[in-house]
Amino acid sequence: MPNLLTTILLLLFGAIEINSPKSESGSRCYIVQKVVDGDTFSIINGKNQTEKIRLIGIDAPEIHRSAHKEVGVYGQQAKSFLIALLKDKQVKLEYDVSKKDRYGRTLAYVYLPNGVFINEKLVALGYAKAATFPPNVKFSKYFVKLEREARSKNLGLWKYE
């Protein structure tokens, strides 16, 4: 269940127009099954199978320690925000050059049916940083701009940097 601040941000930010990129028309919608962390979730794909989706161009703080990464400040908040945005909702996926990462996850820009650009929201509100991994660079400059703005406003994880 999202906290009050998350709910207010969802309501408030959803009403603000920031000239975000629009999804390709005619994209198929998928139901979000589970949110893993602040930048990864699972859908039920067209073959009625679970498919893990990794948001392109962003990196949310980790929620679990691994051999390569420590738990990040604001990771749980990023996951909660993504749950509030996506759990049991439909999403449209848009791809870039590479469709899969080295872990077999599908890489995508994600939109709600009403046009809300999820990757953008996470960076703009400070729940994730911009992270460019060529060749998927379609929105890299845009995400860096959003990160700078969130950082200058001390939003989200930037309060702790």
UniProtKB/TrEMBL annotation:
<keyword id="KW-0540">Nuclease</keyword>
<feature type="domain" description="TNase-like">
    <location>
        <begin position="26"/>
        <end position="160"/>
    </location>
</feature>
<dbReference type="InterPro" id="IPR016071">
    <property type="entry name" value="Staphylococal_nuclease_OB-fold"/>
</dbReference>
<keyword id="KW-0255">Endonuclease</keyword>
<dbReference type="GO" id="GO:0016787">
    <property type="term" value="F:hydrolase activity"/>
</dbReference>
<dbReference type="InterPro" id="IPR035437">
    <property type="entry name" value="SNase_OB-fold_sf"/>
</dbReference>
<dbReference type="GO" id="GO:0003676">
    <property type="term" value="F:nucleic acid binding"/>
</dbReference>
<protein>
    <submittedName>
        <fullName>Nuclease</fullName>
    </submittedName>
</protein>
<dbReference type="InterPro" id="IPR002071">
    <property type="entry name" value="Thermonucl_AS"/>
</dbReference>
<dbReference type="GO" id="GO:0004519">
    <property type="term" value="F:endonuclease activity"/>
</dbReference>
<dbReference type="Pfam" id="PF00565">
    <property type="entry name" value="SNase"/>
</dbReference>
<keyword id="KW-0378">Hydrolase</keyword>
